[in-house]
Write a structure and sequence with these properties.
mainly alpha, 4 helices
Length: about 90
Amino acid sequence: MHLATGIMTEIVQDRLNAAVHECLDRCYQTQSVLAELAQFLVELKSEPGWRVGEIRAVELAVLGVLNGVRIAPGELKEARSKEPWTPPNQPR
């Protein structure tokens, strides 16, 4: 790999990582996680220099981390005690 290409790749990766961390910080501070993610992505789109593929990479990385968040033990017990979800128009 050419040295300049490697440096540019590293710079882009650093920028993507910083955006992912910033977005996660904002998501963890709200109850409206998906709305906050959407707002963050809109803001990225309005900033010069962000390409569609880079924004999508940030989105997928954030969703991957959020998907990995586990329910606290107390919440798990409460969730298990609730009636399971059934599709509309299905007998319970």
